[in-house]
Amino acid sequence: MTIFNPPLEQSDTHAHTGRIGAPFQATVMALGIALLAGCATPPHPAPGPSPAAPPSETPANTLALIGTEWHCTRIGTRIMDAGATPTLLVAADGKASGFAGVNRWFGSCAADGASLKFGMLGMTRMAGPPERMDLEQAYANALAAVTRWSVSNGRLQLSDGTSVILEFVPAH
User: Fold this and answer.
1) Staple 57 to which of 53, 103, 131, 149, CB 3.0 to 4.6 Å?
2) Which of 22, 21, 26, 25 is nearest to 8 (CA)?
3) What span, in angstroms and rounded, lies between the C-alpha atoms of 134 and 128?
4) CA 125 vs CA 2, 51, 108, 166: distances in Å
5) 86: exposed, middle or buried (C-beta count within 10 Å: 0-12, 13-18, 19+)?
Protein backbone atom coordinates (compact mmCIF):
# COMPACT_ATOMS: atom_id res chain seq x y z
CA MET A 1 0.00 0.00 0.00
CA THR A 2 1.45 3.38 -0.96
CA ILE A 3 0.77 6.27 1.37
CA PHE A 4 1.07 9.80 0.08
CA ASN A 5 3.59 11.66 2.17
CA PRO A 6 3.43 15.39 1.36
CA PRO A 7 6.72 17.29 1.26
CA LEU A 8 7.40 19.16 4.45
CA GLU A 9 7.76 22.92 4.37
CA GLN A 10 10.97 24.34 5.79
CA SER A 11 8.93 26.19 8.38
CA ASP A 12 7.39 22.92 9.61
CA THR A 13 8.51 22.24 13.16
CA HIS A 14 9.25 18.59 12.30
CA ALA A 15 11.11 19.30 9.06
CA HIS A 16 14.47 18.65 10.62
CA THR A 17 13.42 15.23 11.95
CA GLY A 18 11.35 14.05 8.95
CA ARG A 19 8.51 13.12 11.31
CA ILE A 20 4.84 13.46 10.53
CA GLY A 21 2.39 15.03 12.97
CA ALA A 22 0.20 12.82 15.17
CA PRO A 23 -3.13 13.95 13.61
CA PHE A 24 -1.89 12.99 10.13
CA GLN A 25 -0.62 9.61 11.38
CA ALA A 26 -3.96 8.91 13.06
CA THR A 27 -5.83 9.74 9.84
CA VAL A 28 -3.57 7.48 7.76
CA MET A 29 -3.96 4.62 10.28
CA ALA A 30 -7.76 5.00 10.30
CA LEU A 31 -7.86 4.92 6.50
CA GLY A 32 -5.60 1.85 6.44
CA ILE A 33 -7.77 0.01 8.93
CA ALA A 34 -10.89 0.91 6.94
CA LEU A 35 -9.28 -0.40 3.74
CA LEU A 36 -8.23 -3.64 5.41
CA ALA A 37 -11.69 -4.10 6.92
CA GLY A 38 -13.18 -3.77 3.44
CA CYS A 39 -10.98 -6.65 2.24
CA ALA A 40 -11.88 -8.92 5.15
CA THR A 41 -13.90 -12.09 4.67
CA PRO A 42 -17.59 -11.36 5.20
CA PRO A 43 -19.16 -12.83 8.32
CA HIS A 44 -20.88 -16.19 8.03
CA PRO A 45 -24.58 -15.87 7.24
CA ALA A 46 -27.06 -16.48 10.00
CA PRO A 47 -28.42 -20.00 10.21
CA GLY A 48 -31.51 -20.59 8.14
CA PRO A 49 -32.55 -21.69 4.69
CA SER A 50 -30.13 -20.85 1.93
CA PRO A 51 -31.31 -19.39 -1.38
CA ALA A 52 -30.30 -22.54 -3.24
CA ALA A 53 -31.13 -25.66 -1.31
CA PRO A 54 -28.45 -28.36 -1.31
CA PRO A 55 -29.27 -31.46 -3.35
CA SER A 56 -30.45 -33.34 -0.26
CA GLU A 57 -33.16 -30.69 0.26
CA THR A 58 -34.04 -30.20 -3.39
CA PRO A 59 -37.35 -31.71 -4.50
CA ALA A 60 -36.76 -35.13 -6.07
CA ASN A 61 -38.02 -34.07 -9.49
CA THR A 62 -35.52 -31.19 -9.62
CA LEU A 63 -32.62 -33.57 -8.89
CA ALA A 64 -32.92 -34.91 -12.45
CA LEU A 65 -32.26 -31.42 -13.80
CA ILE A 66 -29.49 -30.32 -11.42
CA GLY A 67 -25.90 -31.49 -11.75
CA THR A 68 -26.28 -33.48 -14.98
CA GLU A 69 -24.57 -32.33 -18.16
CA TRP A 70 -27.19 -32.55 -20.91
CA HIS A 71 -26.43 -32.76 -24.65
CA CYS A 72 -28.98 -31.22 -26.98
CA THR A 73 -30.55 -33.60 -29.50
CA ARG A 74 -33.22 -31.28 -30.87
CA ILE A 75 -33.94 -27.55 -31.19
CA GLY A 76 -37.55 -27.14 -32.29
CA THR A 77 -37.90 -29.58 -35.19
CA ARG A 78 -34.19 -29.49 -36.01
CA ILE A 79 -32.42 -32.73 -35.04
CA MET A 80 -28.79 -32.26 -33.97
CA ASP A 81 -26.01 -33.98 -35.87
CA ALA A 82 -23.48 -35.95 -33.86
CA GLY A 83 -20.48 -33.87 -32.89
CA ALA A 84 -20.30 -30.48 -31.22
CA THR A 85 -23.88 -30.21 -29.99
CA PRO A 86 -25.09 -27.57 -27.54
CA THR A 87 -24.96 -28.53 -23.87
CA LEU A 88 -26.66 -27.52 -20.64
CA LEU A 89 -25.53 -27.84 -17.03
CA VAL A 90 -27.69 -26.49 -14.19
CA ALA A 91 -26.01 -26.19 -10.79
CA ALA A 92 -27.74 -26.30 -7.40
CA ASP A 93 -26.86 -22.64 -6.82
CA GLY A 94 -29.00 -21.51 -9.78
CA LYS A 95 -26.16 -21.06 -12.24
CA ALA A 96 -26.43 -22.53 -15.71
CA SER A 97 -23.74 -22.96 -18.34
CA GLY A 98 -22.79 -24.94 -21.40
CA PHE A 99 -21.67 -24.93 -25.00
CA ALA A 100 -23.85 -23.23 -27.63
CA GLY A 101 -22.33 -24.54 -30.89
CA VAL A 102 -19.29 -22.28 -31.17
CA ASN A 103 -19.11 -20.42 -27.86
CA ARG A 104 -19.48 -21.21 -24.17
CA TRP A 105 -22.46 -19.63 -22.42
CA PHE A 106 -23.34 -18.93 -18.78
CA GLY A 107 -26.12 -17.36 -16.79
CA SER A 108 -28.68 -17.97 -14.12
CA CYS A 109 -31.84 -20.00 -14.00
CA ALA A 110 -34.65 -20.62 -11.56
CA ALA A 111 -36.42 -23.94 -11.26
CA ASP A 112 -39.59 -24.20 -9.22
CA GLY A 113 -41.32 -27.52 -9.63
CA ALA A 114 -41.90 -27.92 -13.37
CA SER A 115 -41.27 -24.21 -14.04
CA LEU A 116 -37.88 -23.16 -15.39
CA LYS A 117 -36.74 -19.72 -16.43
CA PHE A 118 -33.30 -18.63 -17.61
CA GLY A 119 -32.03 -15.17 -16.68
CA MET A 120 -29.73 -13.02 -18.79
CA LEU A 121 -27.18 -15.18 -20.58
CA GLY A 122 -23.58 -14.26 -21.34
CA MET A 123 -21.46 -15.87 -24.02
CA THR A 124 -17.89 -15.88 -25.24
CA ARG A 125 -17.51 -14.08 -28.57
CA MET A 126 -15.72 -16.36 -31.04
CA ALA A 127 -16.84 -16.46 -34.64
CA GLY A 128 -17.54 -19.70 -36.47
CA PRO A 129 -18.98 -21.02 -39.71
CA PRO A 130 -22.36 -19.45 -40.56
CA GLU A 131 -24.29 -22.70 -39.97
CA ARG A 132 -22.76 -23.07 -36.47
CA MET A 133 -23.51 -19.43 -35.68
CA ASP A 134 -27.12 -19.98 -36.81
CA LEU A 135 -27.33 -23.04 -34.56
CA GLU A 136 -25.96 -21.02 -31.65
CA GLN A 137 -28.49 -18.24 -32.19
CA ALA A 138 -31.38 -20.73 -32.40
CA TYR A 139 -30.19 -22.39 -29.18
CA ALA A 140 -29.89 -19.07 -27.31
CA ASN A 141 -33.35 -17.98 -28.52
CA ALA A 142 -34.86 -21.30 -27.41
CA LEU A 143 -33.26 -21.05 -23.94
CA ALA A 144 -34.73 -17.55 -23.58
CA ALA A 145 -38.23 -18.91 -24.39
CA VAL A 146 -38.16 -21.82 -21.90
CA THR A 147 -40.82 -21.79 -19.18
CA ARG A 148 -41.24 -25.51 -18.29
CA TRP A 149 -39.14 -28.64 -18.02
CA SER A 150 -39.64 -32.39 -17.60
CA VAL A 151 -37.68 -35.60 -17.88
CA SER A 152 -39.32 -38.38 -19.83
CA ASN A 153 -37.67 -41.68 -20.82
CA GLY A 154 -34.31 -40.31 -19.72
CA ARG A 155 -34.64 -37.21 -21.94
CA LEU A 156 -34.78 -33.66 -20.65
CA GLN A 157 -37.48 -31.70 -22.44
CA LEU A 158 -37.70 -27.91 -22.20
CA SER A 159 -40.85 -26.22 -23.42
CA ASP A 160 -42.27 -22.77 -23.92
CA GLY A 161 -45.46 -23.85 -22.17
CA THR A 162 -47.06 -25.06 -25.40
CA SER A 163 -44.55 -27.33 -27.11
CA VAL A 164 -41.14 -28.89 -26.55
CA ILE A 165 -38.52 -26.52 -27.97
CA LEU A 166 -35.35 -28.24 -26.70
CA GLU A 167 -34.60 -31.89 -26.00
CA PHE A 168 -31.49 -33.30 -24.34
CA VAL A 169 -29.90 -36.61 -23.34
CA PRO A 170 -27.46 -37.00 -20.45
CA ALA A 171 -23.76 -36.89 -21.34
CA HIS A 172 -22.02 -40.25 -21.19
Assistant:
1) 53
2) 21
3) 10
4) 38, 31, 19, 23
5) buried
Phi, psi of 135 (to 5 degrees): -60, -45
Three-state secondary structure call for residue 151: strand
168 SS3 class? strand
Residue 89 in contact with residue 50, Cβ under 8 Å? no
Report how far residue 95's alpha carbon sits from residue 124's, in angstroms, rounded to the nearest whole number: 16
Q: pLDDT tens for residues 91-134? A: 999 999 999 999 999 999 999 999 999 999 999 999 999 999 99
Give tens-digit pLDDT for 9-36: 454 444 444 455 555 454 444 444 443 3
Bin 83: left if φ > 0, else alpha if -120 < ψ < 50, else beta. Answer: left
Query: d(Cα 122, Cα 97) in Å, to the nearest integer?
Result: 9
Phi-psi region of 94 (alpha: psi -120 to 50; beta: other; left: phi over 0): left
